[in-house]
Amino acid sequence: xxxxxxxxxxxxxxxxxxxxxxxxxxxxxxxxxxxxxxxxxxxxxxxxxxxxxxxxxxxxxxxxxxxxxxxxxxxxxxxxxxxxxxxxxxxxxxxxxxxxxxxxxxxxxxxxxxxxxxxxxxxxxxxxxxxxxxxxxxxxxxxxxxxxxxxxxxxxxxxxxxxxxxxxxxxxxxxxxxxxxxxxxxxxxxxxxxxxxxxxxxxxxxxxxxxxxxxxxxxxxxxxxxxxxxxxxxxxxxxxxxxxxxxxxxxxxxxxxxxxxxxxxxxxxxxxxxxxxxxxxxxxxxxxxxxxxxxxxxxxxxxxxxxxxxxxxxxxxxxxxxxxxxxxxxxxxxxxxxxxxxxxxxxxxxxxxxxxxxxxxxxxxxxxxxxxxxxxxxxxxxxxxxxxxxxxxxxxxxxxxxxxxxxxxxxxxxxxxxxxxxxxxxxxxxxxxxxxxxxxxxxxxxxxxxxxxxxxxxxxxxxxxxxxxxxxxxxxxxxxxxxxxxxxxxxxxxxxxxxxxxxxxxxxxxxxxxxxxxxxxxxxxxxxxxxxxxxxxxxxxxxxxxxxxxxxxxxxxxxxxxxxxxxxxxxxxxxxxxxxxxxxxxxxxxxxxxxxxxxxxxxxxxxxxxxxxxxxxxxxxxxxxxxxxxxxxxxxxxxxxxxxxxxxx
Length: 649
Fold this sequence. Notes:
By secondary structure, the protein is α/β, with parallel strands linked by helices. It is built from 20 helices and 26 strands.
């Protein structure tokens, strides 16, 4: 039996539910779904939506005869009802007309007609309409529901608790009332969790009609897992349509209240489309522009397009060394460029990196995407304010992404035992923590079977000697990701490198696409890395300008954190005072989330002040919203920056 065979009821491949929910079923169901029950359930739904949904637009999945859709519309919600049953929808439309409410009705097979032809909704409800398909189909339904919700939108999903049903399960039962006789025959398959059977319905003196069903009955924990895999954040589970009542073994109906995470589709790329302090973000292409800036212009300090001036000779030399033959190379026998890259990376970092420890990919972005797949089944633990891509992609793949702060890292490792822990080095505030701190974190993570993904895209400014790549020789659960974007100003080459122990490298390559690094970009990248540390002039310029920049910002009233001296940015709290100052000065800056404080005490949770994470790491901050402000490096940008203070002061 295939995954689809167990949800088919009739001929020609028609799923059972397309024939089941007709006039005969509803004649029986009317005795269970009384007006009093419907009113009670609608009161619960309306209360939850009023309290927790961001708006009034509601989609009712599997709306049937519209008992909840009409009730919610009568309470002021803008409701759309969707169902696969044409007969039920006709009854629903008649009920809405009689009640004097407007509801949009969609004749739609929610399991098969994908994507759904619907707009955005603030909330979705699904009551007694879950389990008609296979597990895979239910997961697709939930993912489609999340796509139909606005960020922060709410899902209320009701299901029948098999733990309760199993205690009263009988293979045959009869229900009789005046003019109606229904015989229920059931066969519950423990191995599949499905209850397949039929209802023989006789109304009056008419011939009996037999309808067949095949329902997947779930334990609440299974539904919670499906919701998490679909990318929802489960907020609570209510019992029997009573808000706040905890579900128990005797609970017949369980309602999960889950949310579509806000910002769930935000990655480093899409973030450029969002408003930022000082004005709207322009196109990503402007990041590398050298637009003239003069007095009175907005000074764009979201990035450092002028840092290329300090590495240009090295970059040009690398490009000049690439021939047409090199650009055309198609290394099918070295699909992860390990044989080519390992000797160069070994010389660059001053250690022996065998080819089975190196994976080249489509920039750090492509490698982080592969790590997101590697993170399944999850969860993924990540620091607030870190690079968003890996946790966001993992969430889209159905892996729970849990944000933490530095001071909570030890406790959250213990509590969640994540598949992957994502770290940025340096942190958003420029903490370029050393090997001792990383070693402690990696050991603590290893005790939980957790892989540590260390994003070192910004560590390049400090030079190769500052990298934690050598740590992979000691930690078989560590992946260090490097790129050619920051500092080298060669992000367009789309080349990145991941270094890990051989066994972990094999796992990474199962998720990373082969031939991700193109021949031309790879050749230029290796040519750059072969030159060693090319950032001496850039570091000198940052060290020259950064103190003056910080002094001007502090003089204007911003509480600046400089971070490591070699990094071309500073941070400051993005509070109302800071926002007003930035706007007054005409500066355009990034707004990001802080990560917390490198506290006293070991990451292993010893409770003492001897942990290396708690010793001497600079740039502690409270973990709120921050402005990330790039250091102006060129004379033109530095002049414009100074002028902003002269005019704004």
